[in-house]
Write a structure and sequence with these properties.
InterPro entries: Arc_rbn_hlx_hlx, Ribbon_hlx_hlx. This protein has 81 residues and is mainly alpha-helical. 67% of the residues lie in helices and 0% in strands. The termini are far apart. The model has no long low-confidence stretch (mean pLDDT 89).
Length: 81
């Protein structure tokens, strides 16, 4: 497995990383890997997720809209209880 060494790592950043790792019950190395994966895939995964959701919406249009109950009537009924 490859080894990564970072020189001159800022102490405050290291402390923050250690605190986050402890909160997530991970080692500092494990937390670093998780954070790097998220950072490197962040933009692509957001775009891919957005495209997938939009495709789902497009491919599953709402049917029988005319049979939906009137929202105002539902709210009125709830308030009268």
């Amino acid at each position: 497995m490859p080894l990564l060494q970072v020189r001159d790592f800022p102490e405050d950043l290291y402390k923050t990383l250690a605190e986050i790792a402890e909160q997530d019950n991970r080692s500092i190395a494990q937390e670093t890997i998780v954070l790097l994966k998220k950072a490197l895939n962040y933009k692509e995964s957001r775009q891919a997720r957005r495209k997938r959701i939009l495709n789902e919406i497009y491919n599953n249009p709402i049917r029988n809209v005319e049979t939906f109950p009137d929202p105002a009537a539902l709210i009125r009924e709830d308030r009268e209880r």
